[in-house]
């Protein structure tokens, strides 16, 4: 059997969740995915196709776990955990330093078993917030008020401290972090149990450091962490915007006013379709951005630099566009050749767009539902790609999200 050292991590990465395989299975076309990922993709697509090669998936295929690949993937995961550095007790002398078993958010200190004892017996210390030992304690402390992040703001989807509720988040919907943690864990359990993967659910929950740790670390990262490693800051380019489109001063929002502005019809500007591009093009191996969309009509994705911007535009890869759209509030489609109707579990509010130049991949995700929407695969990208957006009348603005 091949060892984990002789197999690249890339070959053991699921192209749907972009993480190392969990319960890997092989499709009839020979590609590997996590069982939960490929089942969810197949069960929620009207005409399911392999995300890598585009071949139609067998809707009746009973997936079996590939034991060989699973062992190698689990070996990589074990090594990843082992490589995580230990946290030392901050109260021990240097020569007798022990491993910490808890970190205190109020004290800003990590303690070994013996030095943690006062927190178990002293009445005042027993009220302090303890979490599993971490080196980056500052990630759990409010930067503005230097207090523990023990609340969750549902409006801004971020962890906050008690003092934040008296200032910037005064009118927002806030709940205890532990309560929101239970909501998220319940959502994970219910989703997984529907796919008859109860054992995998138990494994996933056991991997959580604890409700408190989980929320603070992941309230900013609603998708798998690898995507955020490739996030880019997108700003809209006013020189490309159709005359009916209005951009915010910071270039992060776009509206369709329905009235044409008197601006020069330059070669860069769209003059027929209500479109706008991002100001910066990307030609690196991978990049990712997120956008908040309306519930009426929109297009979004990426486009190559040499696209035709004048007259009626055919949105498809042959013309240099890799996009999905919403029409009439409920009709979603991927603008492939031919177009692919999409049946989604719920209306996306935030859509993530991921591009991998090396793999020829453009993928779309429902950020809040952590759900894969569609992927263009086996593509060729000549030169730079630009984030692409189209905005229609009578719809709320499209807003770019800074990650």
From TrEMBL:
This is Uncharacterized protein. Keywords: Immunity, Innate immunity, Metal-binding, Zinc, Zinc-finger. Residues 137-177 form the B box-type domain. GO terms for biological process: innate immune response. Residues 14-53 form the RING-type domain. One of its GO terms (molecular function) is zinc ion binding. GO terms for cellular component: cytoplasm. The keyword Zinc applies. Residues 214-403 form the B30.2/SPRY domain. Pfam families: PRY, SPRY, zf-B_box, zf-RING_UBOX. Gene3D superfamilies: 2.60.120.920, 4.10.830.40, Classic Zinc Finger, Zinc/RING finger domain, C3HC4 (zinc finger). It comes from Sinocyclocheilus grahami. CDD domains: Bbox1_TRIM8-like (cd19802), Bbox2_TRIM16-like (cd19769), SPRY_PRY_C-I_1 (cd13733).
């Amino acid at each position: 059997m091949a060892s984990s050292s002789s197999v690249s991590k890339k070959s053991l990465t699921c192209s749907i969740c972009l993480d190392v395989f969990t319960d890997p299975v092989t499709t009839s076309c020979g590609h590997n995915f996590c069982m939960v990922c490929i089942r969810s993709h197949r069960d929620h697509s009207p005409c399911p196709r392999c995300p890598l090669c585009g071949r139609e998936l067998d809707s009746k295929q009973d997936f079996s776990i590939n034991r060989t690949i699973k062992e190698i993937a689990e070996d990589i995961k074990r090594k990843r955990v082992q490589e995580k550095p230990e946290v030392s007790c901050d109260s021990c002398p240097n020569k007798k330093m022990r491993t910490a078993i808890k970190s205190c958010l109020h004290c800003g200190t990590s303690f070994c078993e013996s030095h943690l004892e006062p927190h178990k017996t002293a009445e005042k210390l027993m009220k302090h917030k303890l979490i599993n030992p971490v080196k980056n304690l500052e990630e759990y402390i409010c930067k503005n008020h230097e207090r523990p992040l023990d609340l969750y703001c549902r409006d801004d989807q971020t962890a906050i401290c008690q003092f934040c509720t008296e200032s910037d988040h005064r009118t927002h919907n806030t709940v205890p972090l532990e309560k929101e943690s239970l909501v998220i864990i319940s959502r994970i359990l219910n989703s997984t149990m529907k796919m008859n993967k109860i054992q995998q659910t138990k494994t996933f929950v056991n991997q959580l450091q604890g409700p408190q740790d989980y929320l603070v670390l992941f309230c900013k990262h609603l998708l798998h962490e690898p995507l955020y490693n490739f996030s880019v800051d997108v700003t809209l380019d006013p020189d490309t915007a159709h005359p009916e489109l209005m951009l915010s001063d910071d270039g992060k929002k776009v509206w369709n006013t329905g009235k044409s502005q008197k601006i020069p019809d330059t070669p860069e500007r769209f003059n027929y379709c209500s479109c706008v591009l991002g100001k910066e093009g990307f030609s690196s191996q991978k990049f990712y951005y997120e956008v908040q969309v309306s519930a009426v009509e929109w297009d979004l994705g990426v486009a190559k630099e040499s696209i035709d911007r004048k007259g009626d535009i055919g949105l498809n890869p042959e013309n240099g566009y890799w996009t999905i759209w919403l029409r009439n509030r409920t009709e979603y489609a991927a603008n492939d050749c031919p177009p692919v109707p999409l049946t989604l579990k719920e209306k996306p509010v935030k859509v993530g767009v991921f591009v991998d130049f090396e793999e020829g991949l453009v993928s779309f995700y429902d950020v809040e539902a952590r759900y894969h929407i569609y992927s263009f695969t086996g593509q060729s990208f000549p030169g730079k790609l630009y984030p692409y957006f189209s905005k229609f009348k009578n719809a709320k603005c499209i807003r770019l999200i800074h990650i």
